[in-house]
Amino acid sequence: MTATAPREEQLWSRCAGCATLLYRKRLRRNLDVCPECGEHARLAAPERLRQLVDPGSLRPLPDQLPEADPIDFVDVLPYPHRLSAARASTGLTEAVVCATATIGGHPAVLAVMDFRFLGGSLGCAVGELITRAAERALDDRIPLILITASGGARMQEGALSLMQMATVSQAIAALREAGLLTVSVLTDPTYGGVAASFATNTDLVLAESGARMGFAGPRVIRQVTGRALPEGFQTADVLLRHGQVDMVVQRRSLRGRLGALLAATSPTRADRPTRPPVPRQEPAPLRERLADPDPDPDAAPALPADPTPPTTAETPAVRDAWDTVRMARHPGRPTTLDYLDSVFDGFVQLHGDRLGGDCPAIVGGVARLADRHVMVIGHQKGHTTAELVARNFGMASPAGHRKALRLMRLAARLGLPVVTLVDTPGADPGVSAEEQGQAAAIAENILTLTVLPTPVLAVITGEGGSGGALALAVADRVLMLENAVYSVISPEGCAAILWPDRSAAPQAARALRLTAPDLCRIGVVDEIVPEPSTAAHDDPAETAHRLRAALLTNLLPLLDVPPAMLVRLRRQRFRRFGSTRAGVRAGAR
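Below the sequence we write its predicted structure tokens.
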């Protein structure tokens, strides 16, 4: 290499799309879009903001948060080392930059993700910063614009990163309730937990030309299905054809489109409310609507336990995390249909999403629990190979998530509590699931559960895998069977990404802190349901007896809580999962 090579490298850039050698200043003038083939290069968050907002209007929001390594994660490197390296290479504090600004003269709050920082992954700090940005938009009564670029939730923060999907979604829900516009702009790439939450549950979803978006990434889908992917799979133009985005926008037009949308939805100053509306009178508590004996009218409602990491009356035996993973996957482990037969009475199954599908991986319907009617929804695996295949191993399709959504909303209208039973490796990673809007289906379930005006009680009975599990687990109380697991990613998937090979899955299982005792310590789970001395599959009747008792103990206090208070408490539960509100560190003893 000659002495002038570094200078030449700065002057020229090779297009990733057509391999043309481009003059760097010309490329920058063209907003980093190749003038030959139209390839949109990835942008750093600061450059994205410079392109979008009015000159001189940018006001960064605070981004300093306490150092966080919530589960003391170590793979081949300690997690803090990876954070330090990302900060040094990008000059950013975290994978998102938040600010207030004007676009075309219209004020907005912006949260712009940066893929350079650990793949734009969603961790506790990122969730906290975006949530604060949404809260600022709510306080200022101005729109929120999210620019997404992410590989998904951050593995190094375990299930706490998964919780951010719900935390940010409920902030979006608060803006919806206030009548404030929310917009997401999908850039390349947007995948995983970000795609299945705030990237797709905003009022408007725009996609930059060339962006790719999906719940499962192309490599995962190819590995699972063994099929070649269709031409243009998960790209912006295909997403538009499948009705998953509102529009595809060239980068040079993005600022103008956002300005037009803000102009169309910005009320005049005279139209803005000067004070909050008078609250509606609270409906009667659910216990009264379920025709139970009248409670003491002078007594205060029995609220759920304070949202702090709980303790259990019975301390489960300590088991290695990898052994617990294998136990959770045991084919003899009771399924949702088994529990519907042994824990509940009079189950009446309801089918269909009313949009053209009836996913067998999700079962649901009305049942009785100690003479109280409830809506039960759960993943269904099976015991034999034939059953597992027929039920897609408990991996729900978009139709399954939409069926669950329909039943949740029906339960709220009928005044029925919702009980969910979670047992899935994750959502369906197939081609058809992606084409039918898997990410948006999960996102809508999560957002709806944050505002559902009826008690929601979730139980992790086997595997709680990623967003497919969270789609049924945004609840007032989350219980977990002793030998179940709940994780942002499978140990095998984590090992394949962060370790040299998949044989490190046992190490990954330990690092992810996915067992019930670990999750109870950090507050993701409220209570552990002990299993018989061996395991649930060795004594299903005793397991059902213990689960029934735990459900009743946790459900009955919720019946006395007015719906609006239920929603507030549920939101408080998930709001505390930001980096400054996470529960006890998993490493603390």
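Residues 143 and 181 are 5 Å apart (CA to CA).
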